[in-house]
Design a protein that fits this description.
The protein is of the alpha+beta class and 184 residues long. It is built from 1 helix and 9 strands, in the order H-E-E-E-E-E-E-E-E-E. The strands form 2 sheets. Strands 3-2-5-6-9 form a 5-stranded antiparallel β-sheet, with no helix packed on it. Strands 4-1-7-8 form a 4-stranded mixed β-sheet, with no helix packed on it. About 6% of the residues have low confidence.
Length: 184
């Protein structure tokens, strides 16, 4: 006689758990769409980075944000620098409209044995890029990390720069860049 009541109680609890899971999924979907500005029907946007800075700089930290939300972070591990080739940063959906991609990179001096004091310096460079996502036109953004200026006329702390290159011709041109901050 107690067995059917126990089965009904288990069945009721299973129903309650299913209901809680359904509500949690709906809440997560709403939060995701509101805070991450993504939806299942968004336009896939790809971001990659190529570090082309000279041998005097070693990339030790990379942080990217889309619309103020961190989407990528990488730090050097065990004194092993981040690779200089193409680095996939983000590949995800965004709602149509205007968005902002922000990059913050941290470099450490790489003076080898000749200029070993240079290894104590760090250089931080940040930049932001506004772009437009349109239905049917998925943007691909390449972030190029380069040296600007020349060896003779530009100080070491002002050489690191970030350039955004997008294949979407409808995106606003130009970048907002903050120069590198050297610190010891």
């Amino acid at each position: 006689m107690g067995r059917p009541d126990a089965l009904r109680e288990v069945d009721r609890r299973i129903g309650d758990l299913k209901d809680q899971i359904f509500r949690a999924k709906a809440r997560l979907s709403l939060l995701s769409e509101r805070h991450l500005r993504t939806s299942a029907g968004g336009v896939v946007t790809a971001v990659s980075q190529r570090n082309q800075l000279g041998m005097l700089y070693r990339l030790v930290r990379v942080v990217y944000e889309v619309d103020g939300r961190e989407v990528f972070r990488r730090d050097e591990e065990n004194n092993k620098p981040i690779p200089t080739g193409d680095l996939p940063i983000w590949d995800g959906p965004l709602r149509p409209g205007e968005h902002t991609l922000s990059a913050t990179l941290l470099y450490r001096g790489n003076g080898s044995r000749v200029f070993s004091y240079f290894d104590e310096y760090t250089y931080s460079v940040s930049a932001a890029h506004r772009f437009v996502v349109q239905e049917g036109s998925p943007p691909r953004i390449r972030v190029l990390c380069r040296e600007k200026g020349s060896f003779a006329t530009t100080s070491l702390e002002n050489r690191p720069s970030i350039e955004f290159v997008t294949d979407d011709s409808k995106a606003p041109k130009g970048t907002a860049e903050k120069g590198a901050d050297a610190s010891r």
